[in-house]
Structures are given as structure tokens and as C-alpha cells.
Amino acid sequence: HLITVTATDSGSLTGTDSITVIVNPPGNTAPTATITAPANNTSVTVGDNITFTGTGTDPEDGDMTASLAWSSDLDGSIGSGGNFSINSLSVGTHLITVTATDSGSLTGTDSITVIVNPSGGTSTLVLPINLGTDDVEERPSGQVIIGSADLDMVLSGVEQTVGMRFNGVAIPQGSTITGAYIQFTAAHTRSLATSLTLEGEDTDDALTFDRNVNGDVSGRPRTLASVSWPSVPAWTGIGDAGLDQRTPDLSTIVQEIVDRTNWVSNNSLVFIVTGSGKREGVSFESNPAAVPVLHVEFSQ
């Protein structure tokens, strides 16, 4: 409905203003849109084929796959429906949005970021922890703790082992890793002398952690490559996420994993942290916006 109000003065002059009001059928609710692929922060080279899949559901209208519209903040409309592929995204960081529209014109949206890098250059991948079962602590007894408000590296009454899993690692097998690090956000201020060691899980596609599997962090096979983080700087401010909260270069670990014969782009990889002392990073359960983030630069 176009609703218009008209004001008339004593001289019969008028002024108007209008708004649009949508009247939906009784009980109508907005649909839900979900992007299922690619993973958030996927990084590709310009000209690469990218497949987008998603769903749209609504209590009244059921499956709404046919009513999905896709757009990029850089390129505008890029496709429709629940599954399509394109290779024409422009270079840059795209905010990709899918919109589901129901029969009453109500909408629901979901968004991800896709990074399109220039051809022949270095690609950048930015991957935050995105599941509560992907950042965990393991006690010396082998008990896996899921749901902690922070990641204690590594002292929590006793020295424990920390595991972190990163998903959708869009690096082709055999790429050259030119840089890699994990960025933490400080959950607490700590200055206790701390020295940490980071290793990778030696597998093609790492599984999420399972609290029902005793030793599910420490018992996983390790990469030959390991990186020492000796004399970790004091973390002096809650919420700090700077150089002091950034690991040393982890390129050797990532390189060993993506060089595996059966590694496939978009697989998952795990880092395992051991050592002594105490630094506490924000966990997924505490604040999904301040989780550990894996940064990788690579070339093909």
C-alpha cells in the first residue's frame, strides 16, 4: 500500500507525504537465507570458477531455493537460485549477499566475504575460528574441554594442550606459502614468563575436536615442522590484538600440510599448542568476533 497524508490550508493549498506499508497474509514470517558454500573469507585468483550454493526456507512457503537472489557489493547482481558458478568476479574484497524473498515480499539475507586476488600475484587467506568445537583445551588426563570462555595457553592450574582448527582453507595443493600467522585477541592481561610451541596436525583434512575422545588433541599425529614462540610478550590490555598477540611465522607448518599428496583446497587444518606459562586468548564461545584468526599468504 502507498499511504499518503495530505494537509490542506485555508487557501486550499495542499502538501503531501507518502510511505509504503506491506500487509502480509495472517501469520506470515520472514524467510531465512543461508550460504552453504563457499566458506567465509575464501580467497581465489581472478578468473577462477567459484560455485555458490545456498538455501532459503520459510515456515509458510517451505523450500524457497528458486527465490534466492545473489549480489556483490562490488559487482552488483551475480546470480540466482540455490546453486550456480561464475568466474567473472572483479579483483577486490567482495561482500556476497544472498536474499530469500517469500510470497508476501518478506526477505531474509546471509552474507560472506570472498577475496579475489590479481592473476600472478600473492593471494591472501583470512580464516577465523567458526565453530565452538574448533578451539579447545585438553587436560593432562586427556579430557577435552569444549566451551571454555578463553583459550589458556597453556597453564590452567596444570599445563594443558590447546587445539585450533581452521576450515575452508582455499589453498591449492602444492602452492608456495609465503607467510602465515595466527592472530589472537587478549582475553586477560598476563605477564608470566611464557614459551609456546606450535605444530600442525599431519593429516589431509582435519576433523573437529570431540570431547568424547580422550586425548583428541594431544593424540593427533604432528607435522615434522614446528615453530617456537619463545618469551611471548606480556599481554597488557584486554581486547588487544596486535603484534604482541601474533604468533611467529607458521609458513613451514602450513607448507607441509598443503604439500601432502591428498591435500585438497578448502580442506581443514589444525594447529596444536604446547609449552609453559600463561596467555589467554578470546575463544569462540566468549566472542565469535574476536576469535583466533589464521592469516596465510601464498602463490601458485
Task: Give the topology.
Layout: E1 2-8, E2 14-20, E3 32-37, E4 42-45, E5 50-58, E6 62-63, E7 68-72, E8 76-80, E9 83-86, E10 92-101, E11 107-117, E12 123-128, E13 135-138, E14 144-145, E15 150-156, E16 158-159, E17 161-169, E18 176-183, E19 195-201, E20 222-229, H1 251-258, E21 267-276, E22 278-282, E23 293-299
Parallel strand pairs: 4-11
Antiparallel strand pairs: 1-2, 3-5, 5-6, 5-9, 7-8, 7-10, 10-11, 12-23, 13-14, 13-17, 15-16, 15-22, 17-21, 18-23, 19-20, 19-21
- Given the C-alpha coordinates, what overall shape results? elongated
**Major beta sheet summary:** 6 strands, antiparallel
Instruction: Tell me the fraction of residues in β-strands, as a range.
Output: over 45%
> Low-confidence spans: pLDDT under 50, at least 5 residues?
none
Mean pLDDT: 90
Distance between the termini: 55 Å
Strand order of the largest sheet: 14-13-17-21-19-20
* Class derived from helix and strand content: mainly beta
Describe the structure.
Helices cover 3% and strands 48% of the residues. It has 300 residues and is mostly beta strands. A 6-stranded antiparallel beta sheet has the order 14-13-17-21-19-20, with helices on one face. Strand 1 and strand 2 (14-20) form a beta hairpin. The longest helix is centred in the last third of the chain and has 8 residues, at 251-258.
Short overview:
The protein is an all-beta fold and 300 residues long.
Keywords:
300 residues, mainly beta, six-stranded antiparallel beta sheet, five-stranded mixed beta sheet, 1 helix, 23 strands, 3% helix, elongated
